[in-house]
């Protein structure tokens, strides 16, 4: 542990079920001495993750919120500042693939669900945090895109993640005069419990680990990545 984030507050969305990327990211940030606000839709899940982090000595605020709602996103930021004093890092991890079907079978509800969870939420959270970072003299936003070329049967998800990359570059341009760095991580296959259950791989050696992703978040959130903005970092393990 290097205490690279000592005195900083990190707001991390999508910290819900155990065995997923969110808890690994939260643990990694806490291990670098960051105070945390962690967010998920499920109050039960986010409070359980907060208790685990607190047992390890972290300072943690748990927030239950639907981040596709702009009022909820704004209130999340306000509560974090009220209770933890500031925000230095935003990690837009909330989202994921939930609709897998051909484009011609994708309903408007399917489309709105994937775009909302993966792109709209990242926009609303970033928009709410941006003035706080600007007024504090800078900070970092870490978004989540996806590695590789678009795949069939994932049209809304593919478009949402392409939008996240565009959002990242746009916010990086708008943040450069305010010392706000905005980057994205593009994971390949990750050894989450849900991926393993769904795909039942015989060999995980070529998959990225949750800890690989978490270390990349710490890098982009900390001063180690000073001078890097508007970039998308692929983290694919050995499955290049």
Rounded Rg: 17 Å
Number of strands: 7
Uncertain segments are: none
Instruction: Tell me the helix content.
Output: 40-55%
Care to describe what's here?
It is a single chain. This protein is an alpha/beta fold and 240 residues long. The chain has one domain (9-235): NAD(P)-binding Rossmann-like Domain (Rossmann fold, 3-Layer(aba) Sandwich). It is 45% helix and 16% strand. The chain is built from seven helices and seven strands, in the order βαβαβαβαβαβααβ. The protein has a seven-stranded parallel β-sheet with strand order 3-2-1-4-5-6-7, sandwiched between helices. Helix 1 links the parallel strand 1 and strand 2 (35-40). Helix 1 crosses helix 7 (210-221) and helix 3 runs parallel beside helix 4. It is globular, with a radius of gyration of 17 Å. The model has no long low-confidence stretch (mean pLDDT 96).
List keywords for this structure.
Rossmann fold, 16% strand, 240 residues, seven-stranded parallel beta sheet, globular, alpha/beta, 7 strands, 7 helices
What is this structure, in a nutshell?
The chain is an alpha/beta fold. The chain is 45% helix and 16% strand.
């Amino acid at each position: 542990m290097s205490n690279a984030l000592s005195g900083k507050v990190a707001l991390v969305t999508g910290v819900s079920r155990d065995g997923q990327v969110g808890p690994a990211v939260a643990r990694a940030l806490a291990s670098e001495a960051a105070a945390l606000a962690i967010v998920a839709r499920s109050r039960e899940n986010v409070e359980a993750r907060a208790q685990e982090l607190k047992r390890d000595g972290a300072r943690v605020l748990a927030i239950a919120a639907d981040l596709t709602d702009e009022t909820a996103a704004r209130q999340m930021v306000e509560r974090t500042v009220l209770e933890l004093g500031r925000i230095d890092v935003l990690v837009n991890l909330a989202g994921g693939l939930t609709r897998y079907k051909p484009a011609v079978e994708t309903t408007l509800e399917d489309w709105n669900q994937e775009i909302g969870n993966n792109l709209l939420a990242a926009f609303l959270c970033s928009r709410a945090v941006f003035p706080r970072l600007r007024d504090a003299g800078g900070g970092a936003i870490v978004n989540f895109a996806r590695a590789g070329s678009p795949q069939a049967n994932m049209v809304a998800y593919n478009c949402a993640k392409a939008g996240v990359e565009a959002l990242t570059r746009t916010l990086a341009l708008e943040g450069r005069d305010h010392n706000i760095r905005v980057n994205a991580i593009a994971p390949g296959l990750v050894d989450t419990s849900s991926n393993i259950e769904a795909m039942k791989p015989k060999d995980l050696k070529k998959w990225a680990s949750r800890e690989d992703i978490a270390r990349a978040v710490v890098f982009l959130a900390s001063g180690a990545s000073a001078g890097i903005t508007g970039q998308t970092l692929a983290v694919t393990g050995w499955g290049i």
